[in-house]
Amino acid sequence: MSAPVLGPTRRPTMKDVAALSGVSLKTVSRVVNAEPLVSADVVARVTAAIDQLRYRPDDRAGSLRRTGQRVNTIGLLVSSTSNPFAVAVHRAVEVAVTRERDVAVIASSADELAEFEQRTVEMLLRRRVDGLILTPMSPSQAYLRDELRFGTPVVAIDRTPVGIDVDCVLSDHIAGAAAATEHLLARGHRRIAFLGDLATIQSAASRRRGFLDALGARGVPSGSCPVVMDLHSEEAAARATVELLRGEDPPTAIVGGQNLVTVGVVRALRELGLQRSTALVGFDDLPLAEFLDPAITVVAQDPEAVGRIAVERLFARLEGDASEPGTVLVPTTLIPRGSGELPVPEGRGRG
Amino acid sequence: MSAPVLGPTRRPTMKDVAALSGVSLKTVSRVVNAEPLVSADVVARVTAAIDQLRYRPDDRAGSLRRTGQRVNTIGLLVSSTSNPFAVAVHRAVEVAVTRERDVAVIASSADELAEFEQRTVEMLLRRRVDGLILTPMSPSQAYLRDELRFGTPVVAIDRTPVGIDVDCVLSDHIAGAAAATEHLLARGHRRIAFLGDLATIQSAASRRRGFLDALGARGVPSGSCPVVMDLHSEEAAARATVELLRGEDPPTAIVGGQNLVTVGVVRALRELGLQRSTALVGFDDLPLAEFLDPAITVVAQDPEAVGRIAVERLFARLEGDASEPGTVLVPTTLIPRGSGELPVPEGRGRG
DNA sequence: GTGAAAGCGCTAACAT
DNA sequence: ATGTTAGCGCTTTCAC
């Protein structure tokens, strides 16, 4: 069927199909949209013309006129392409949205730069995406208020939004960091260091909070437990680790506040030859972590759950759910593998 | 400025802005598109109205009418969300396209399922994306011929397309696998096993080809070097490794034909306690590979280069480049870390 | 400098 | 069961 049509290089429109099959525009539209009440004969003729011309409907035009105005596309803003957690959430959203729903995703990352957030969101809104899943990075998301009134649903992920009242899905950063800390405290550590990402990142601040909470619950003075923030790269984390361990009264245990930070700590501990004498619990799982020696104990997040639940909330809103927006806390899981179970070295009992 | 406007929840259009500022539709259009020949006074009035109404242009409508018909969006089809190489290419494309170009990416993955390829491409074409970067997964891409005539540029990545003549950017799979194999041969190994992904995947087949080529160049009979294909998961690769090493006359060295395959091999070697007596070179780098013991020697691909070059080719075509389509081979790099430099164990010299 | 009319490709609402 | 008319939100063309 459908011999190659050379001639015109212009993309065929519905009008061309109508002309070729000798019916009206509307009838072609009916066939394309599989509406009933079209005779089998006409369906055949139109289908043949579509095949012959290689006609493909233009979704832009359709969505422009169609009531409801859906474009079957959602926008996604993740924090950073270098963060494995963000990448995993991105994939989870794409999978959840593409499978069965026939909706596409326009994704973008702002690399933790607050000023890119609004710029990127504007770009998505000009494309009239049906909804938005975004990682709040700027101090306020109030700029989205009117958009919400116009009917575009928004779901925040990984961090609590400010200035708008929308659904939010995030890991329990505080509880996770507290669990990591308590895990070390339970093994006798009393000089524990916390190494965190940029203090301006809400999730990083929450994890520090969890760390301090756990110390407080045990009555451990936080003065003996150094907190270093603003470590936004593996290298920075490695340097900070070396500095801490070479300093006076070095910590016997470390909580790595983020994926890349933990890798930096691992690198530094190995360079110093201290990986078997300094306990380590990392926030966020790492690939191959189980094969290291010692294997790395981590507090694993559940990026698949975060992505999937965010998509579910968004589509519930699109389908009319008008209940009060809420926050879903996705639990974390502590996975003991060795590095977090290292004891306090002899003679360094109570810092 | 811009007091909150309550009342109507309908999204404002250019018409609303025109009415509020007391000018014609066309004049608003001029202001929005920063066309010259508009008096400063009118610009101010229109801008105020835009602010007050929270007007945002509709890119769909614009692109529909505008000559050139660009939607400032490209489509990307990657092989699989579980493949780190594909994920890295995806990120590279997104970064290259978003920065400075103000173009968005609609990405999708077909999880190596040939039938999803065409379905996904159709979805992208209905959205009238400006161009397509895709990983060929089905036996032929001839279905794209007419689309190319209509002016949509296409760039293939990771695998050579069939049935269409378009630009292609891929790693030098054959040379990379040959280098991995030669690395082991040079250290005396003569019983080397190759474990590969699905034989239907072109890149997997190319790597097997490179393996066999390297054996041939040294005059090593391929009969003594087992090739196991169709290992599409870490678990399958681990099982195959165990089987090989428990069998008669086990290999002294292994080439892991793909990321996840290599991880499976690592797992199996450790379970068998053979990680220090069986040499291993993996295709594709792995995070933390340097921290394992022994650290894993790999042939690293350059996903950033693949993504970036594909984007460059695509935009060159969009800007009118009509030269003959060509293929860019991105070189791979062998990174010796330990596992690939293990010697042949005593007494197992010449298999 | 500004505006009115036509139309991008399609669907809604109403014919018949 | 099929066609006609209007119009989605915008830009083009051409007039003033």
Q: What labels would you give this structure?
A:
homodimer, 351 residues, alpha/beta, six-stranded parallel β-sheet, six-stranded mixed β-sheet, 12 helices, 12 strands, 41% helix, elongated, disordered N terminus, DNA-binding
Relative helix content of chain A: 40-55%
Span of the ends, CA to CA of chain A: 82 Å
Low-confidence sequence ranges of chain A: 1-7
Please state how the strands of the largest beta sheet of chain A are arranged side by side.
2-1-3-4-5-11
Mean pLDDT of chain A: 94
Order of helices and strands of chain A: HHHHEHEHEHEEHEHEHEHEEHEE
In one word, what is the shape of chain A? elongated
What does the largest sheet of chain A look like?
A: 6 strands, parallel
**Computed Rg of chain A:** 27 Å
Q: Oligomer, anyone?
A: homodimer
